[in-house]
Amino acid sequence: MKRVNTTAFSASIEAYLQYTRMPWGRLFYLSAWEQIDTFLTGEARSILDIGSGFGISSNEYSRRGHVVTGVEPTQEMVTIAAKDGREVRYINDSLERAAEGLGTFGWSFCHNILEYTEDPQLFLGLIAGCQQTGGYLSLIAHNPAAKVMKKAILNKDPDGALAAIGNSQEYSGLIQTAYTVYPYEQLADWLSRAGYEIEGHFGIHNLYGYITDNEVKQDEDWHNRMVQLELELGKRSPFREIAIFTHIVARKI
């Protein structure tokens, strides 16, 4: 299986880190955690964070008392993550190489990683092999519908939007690399084949990602009110179906 190419991620470290600190980056994590916490209740759990990046989620859940292992192939990201996550076990490697020796976990996070793998079905199989029966997977991926809507609404490019319909290829201006988007139905099928049953389906950046006025997003009062709206919309149709990101929480059966 081809491993995720870390070159583009290494080259975009500063821009990517800055994104996570902006209101829209903070909203992404707040939304993901709120949705995860619907299911992650009670006693401390073991968590495997796949593609843990800057350790934002790993360190957050470690601070909450969970036992977290982060797997991240980009060395620069691991260095940054480890500064704030001394209790997290960080492994600077790919899941493909590390999976056999990881053991099994109560929870797994796979956030915006599947798009960059050559064979996502096999990748989900590796995750399933590290998942305890009855454990949960939080899977976040770019939504193909949003790809079309962003071209039409944000770029005002109807021709580009028309050409994007049914086209699974996209390019990240932030990371400056190509990635592949997958519809919810495809993700659900792969999860089922890997032995998972879907427990939750959410959207992240349901409307926020289509608002072009970044100045208003810097207003804390507006931002906080928008967070409340986003958290509510993320649980509901049709908003979750047009969100920038699809979030699936699935249980290993």
Strand-residue proportion: 15-25%
- Specify the oligomeric state: single chain
User: Compute the gyration radius: what is it?
Assistant: 17 Å
Class inferred from helices and paired strands: alpha/beta
Largest sheet at a glance? 7 strands, mixed
For the biggest β-sheet, the strand order reads 3-2-1-4-5-9-8
The number of strands is: 9
The number of helical segments is: 12
**Elements, N to C (H/E):** HHHEHEHEHEHEHHEEHEHHE
Describe this structure in words.
The chain has 253 residues and is of the alpha/beta class. Helices cover 42% and strands 23% of the residues. It has helices at 7-11, 13-21, 23-36, 56-63, 75-84, 95-98, 120-129, 144-153, 158-164, 184-193, 214-217, 220-233; strands at residues 46-50, 67-71, 89-91, 105-111, 131-142, 169-172, 177-180, 196-204, 245-252. The chain has a 7-stranded mixed beta sheet with strand order 3-2-1-4-5-9-8, sandwiched between helices. It is globular and about 50 Å long. The mean pLDDT is 95.
Summarize this structure briefly:
The chain has helices at residues 7-11, 13-21, 23-36, 56-63, 75-84, 95-98, 120-129, 144-153, 158-164, 184-193, 214-217, 220-233, and strands spanning 46-50, 67-71, 89-91, 105-111, 131-142, 169-172, 177-180, 196-204, 245-252. The chain is built from twelve helices and nine strands.
